[in-house]
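User: Please predict the structure of the protein below. I'd like the answer in structure-token form so I can feed it into my own downstream comparison script.

Assistant: Understood. Taking the following sequence of 126 residues as input:
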Amino acid sequence: SGVGEAGMSRLDETVRPLAARLVARAGTAMTWRRAGPPAYDPATGAVTAAETDTAVTGVIDEVETGHPDGLVRRGDRIVTLAAEPLDAEPAPGDALLIGGAVHRVVTVTTTWAGDRPALYRLHVRR
């Protein structure tokens, strides 16, 4: 017999906070700027993007540039964020502000704990 549903939910409850603690301990403070839907201001005629800034901690890894698919460029990074403290999922087009520099999210890979996300790995580019 395998792990029952109750066993998996207990594992989920353990893995997610553990991932959050490890990222918080090893990570760097940064700001996640989530892109929102564009808003039209009829008074000015301007269209602006609504953005939400959230303070986060992420682990930054440099990326090898020798990928044969050509999707990785010099200076690209992988930033790992814990899912537990976030109220939404990061997406391409979002930004991370790291040390005053804006890094755009190219792709997001999710690591799951059961049926809930535990970690997000963001491929970012300046």
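That's the full token string. The beta strands are 28-41, 46-62, 77-82, 95-98, 101-113, 116-125.
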